[in-house]
Specification:
With about 280 residues, the protein is an alpha+beta fold. About 40% of the residues lie in helices and about 25% in strands. The protein has a five-stranded antiparallel sheet with strand order 1-2-9-4-7, with helices on one face. This is Helix-turn-helix domain-containing protein.
Length: about 280
């Protein structure tokens, strides 16, 4: 049995920096190797703690790598990747992992690290928390078998780091995270130049404003589809999704969908939801 849960931060002061926590703790009672899911691109910075290792593998661009026992940090808008369960002769295997999703500006504002400088680097917890705090944080998390307690432990160390931060939150950050306006309109609204906005966006978040907006729009579309399926809708109109997402046309929607998933909308969603719902234009 696996205890799996995704939750938002407990401490109110962390809501501006942390989007969510996800933990999986328990026993895996399967021996077969199999495909688990396709992880999609996100502009969020992800801190991943793997406390067991050897349970899964990640495949990107045809290269498969086993997920070992360690910490992983991913920042910047990467490609989609496939996650596989590794087969084993053991009937029962312990599973324990913990993921923290940080907003794209958090790495810069809280830890003083510009995402653009560490893009595609193999980062670990030590690289952002330092050796002492990273070691203590990992030890406390590893000693706990309670997901909610693990969140409390992480927040204790994060708040301590937050109290030491010297970079103030950029007044432009909320606009960069939430605005769907073009950079021209955003410049007119805020009074900053387009060039300065782009510079700030790349320095604090690691990607351009357009890429942030495109990623948020795509993930919102997927969330809307999921809500429709859960509400019992049996047919979903792709044309309506194109309209809801403010895509230029059908071709634009399909192109961005393939860019984010490696599949056409019909293929991806049919595989994900199979016989639950049908899709049409």
């Amino acid at each position: 049995m696996i205890n799996y849960k995704e939750v938002t931060p407990k401490a109110p002061q962390l809501l501006a920096y942390i989007q969510s926590y996800t933990y999986s703790i328990g026993s895996l009672n399967e021996t077969d190797a199999k495909f688990i899911t396709r992880a999609l691109p996100t502009v969020m910075t992800q801190l991943y703690f793997e406390f067991e290792g050897g349970l899964s593998a990640i495949e990107t661009n045809g290269k498969r790598v086993e997920v070992a026992k360690r910490t992983y940090i991913s920042c910047g808008l990467s490609s989609w990747m496939d996650i596989y369960q590794i087969g084993s002769q053991q009937k029962t295997r312990a599973i324990k992992n913990f993921k923290v999703e940080l907003y794209p500006h958090t790495l810069f504002e809280v830890f003083g690290i510009s995402p653009i400088e560490v893009m595609n680097e193999d980062l670990s917890l030590v690289d952002i928390f330092g050796l002492s705090d990273a070691s203590l944080l990992y030890e406390e998390l590893e000693a706990s078998d309670d997901g909610e307690k693990m969140i409390e432990i992480f927040e204790k160390y994060f708040i301590n780091r937050l109290l030491k931060k010297t970079i103030k939150q950029n007044t432009l950050t909320p606009h960069l995270l939430n605005s769907s306006q073009s950079i021209k309109l955003l410049a007119e609204e805020t009074g900053y130049s387009q060039r300065w906005i782009q510079k700030q966006c790349r320095e604090t978040m690691g990607v351009s404003l357009k890429k942030i907006q495109n990623n948020k729009r795509f993930l919102k579309i997927l969330d809307n589809i999921h809500r429709k399926v859960l509400s019992g809708e049996e047919k979903i109109n792709f044309t309506q999704l194109v309209y809801e997402g403010n895509y230029y046309d059908q071709a634009h929607f399909i192109r961005e969908f393939k860019q984010n998933t490696g599949m056409t909308p019909s293929l991806y969603l049919s595989q994900k939801y199979q016989y639950l719902v049908s899709f049409f234009w």
